[in-house]
Specification:
CATH class of the largest domain: Alpha Beta
Helix content: 40-55%
Largest sheet: 4 strands, mixed
Strand content: 5-15%
Distance between the termini: 36 Å
Structural class: alpha+beta
Number of helices: 7
Number of strands: 4
Radius of gyration: 18 Å
Number of domains: 2
Order of helices and strands: HHHHEHHEEEH
CATH topology of the largest domain: Glutaredoxin
Length: 164
């Protein structure tokens, strides 16, 4: 499933730690960056690379918000709903996205561009409410800034597809 270059990266990650198991997060990132999500077959492959039980790898995938065991939109919108964000109106963030994109939590748009997910904590409590779009943080959100972020993605997609 990995190219020679990716396998070399896995070996480099493993060499950083006294135990291979410690490289699991980095290897899962490589897998997810390549395929977009990590299903059971991919998790088993990672387990074999690190000489771990597949259940251990699946447990890591299910525990951390950053890993996905099913396809998601090209742009995964994760809204933090932990205490700081909740107290600073994460409900507004979710409602704005639902209204704008016409999807519920855990769903993706028909065009496959966006999916909406809840995140337990994204570690940006001082700038709540916030969401991540893939690996980019958007903080101190308002309905206007949420819609601007979505507009920006649509514009970028339109430009990338030559539909300008």
């Amino acid at each position: 499933m990995f190219t020679e270059q990716e396998l070399a990266h896995v070996e480099e990650l493993k060499s950083r730690y006294p135990e291979k198991q410690a490289a699991i997060m980095g290897v899962l990132h490589i897998m997810q960056d390549k395929y977009g999500y990590i299903d059971e077959e991919r998790a088993t492959y990672v387990a074999e690379l690190l000489e771990l039980p597949p259940e251990h790898v699946l447990g890591v995938i299910s525990f951390y918000e950053m890993y996905h065991d099913h396809p998601t939109g090209k742009y995964k919108l994760q809204v933090c709903t932990n205490v700081s964000c909740m107290l600073r109106n994460s409900d507004m963030v979710i409602a704005t996205i639902k209204e704008r994109l016409g999807i519920a939590m855990g769903e993706q748009t028909e065009d496959g561009l966006f999916s909406l997910h809840e995140a337990e904590c994204l570690g940006s409590c001082g700038t709540a409410p916030m969401m991540s779009v893939n690996k980019d943080y958007h903080e101190n959100l308002t309905p206007e800034s949420i819609n601007a972020a979505i507009d920006s993605i649509y514009a970028m997609e339109k430009s990338n597809n030559g539909n300008s």
